[in-house]
Write a structure and sequence with these properties.
By secondary structure, this protein is of the alpha/beta class. The protein contains three helices and eight strands; from the N terminus they run αββαββββββα.
Length: 198
């Protein structure tokens, strides 16, 4: 019977290792899905904001108004930015021209094409119900991917010079309701995590 105890311990160890694989895969998957924020700062001008106002809002009558730049997503983005700034202790200025920081924002999207020929020749032959066939040079593209972006800009309230810019790849094409709110909130959180004077 000494072998029965050893075998059951080995089975338990193998099961523990097998259960660890999905956990590791989930952690790696979540890391790979993290939003990548790109920032730029005017180091000579950047300072902590105590109050803010809006630098502007979406205007115009383009085809984008009904897709990515719709007024509901603009409102969601403004609310997310204002909520995040307020959670940092930055209040919205009550009088025009009295904010020490101005906040601008944008939502956009474009199509990115990639792909091309295989890196070498792919000669071959075969047969099927239509008869013999042979191959030649391969081609796998182009593939087209939709790429969306959300950007936030902070300007000095007095000089109106740009202090800080951040953007993140987050596509809002067709997003509405709770899904749009979730994507916008996630993007705004990722963006302000990189604000250097917060």
């Amino acid at each position: 019977m000494p072998h029965a105890g050893r075998n059951s311990r080995e089975v338990v160890n193998v099961l523990k290792k097998l259960l660890l694989i999905p956990v590791i895969a989930a952690v790696l998957g979540a890391t790979a899905c993290a939003l990548q924020v790109r920032t730029d700062a005017n180091a000579a001008l950047i300072h902590a904001c105590h109050s803010f106002d809006w630098a502007g809002s979406f205007r115009g009558n383009t085809s984008l108004r009904t897709t990515i730049a719709n007024p509901l997503n603009e409102s969601r983005l403004r609310a997310a930015i204002a909520g995040h700034l307020q959670s940092m202790g930055v209040t919205q200025a009550t009088a025009a021209g009295k904010a020490d920081c101005l906040v601008g924002y944008g939502i956009g999207a474009n199509n990115v094409a990639f792909g091309g020929p295989y890196p070498g020749w792919g000669w071959g032959w075969g047969g099927g119900w239509r008869g013999p066939y042979w191959g030649g040079y391969g081609w796998y593209g182009p593939d087209v991917m939709r790429q969306g972006i959300i950007g936030v800009d902070i300007y000095d309230g007095v000089s109106r010079e740009p202090m800080w810019h951040a953007s993140v790849d987050q596509d809002l094409t067709g997003a509405k309701g709770p899904e749009a709110e979730r994507r916008i909130s996630t993007a705004v959180q990722a963006i302000f995590a990189k604000y250097p004077a917060g």
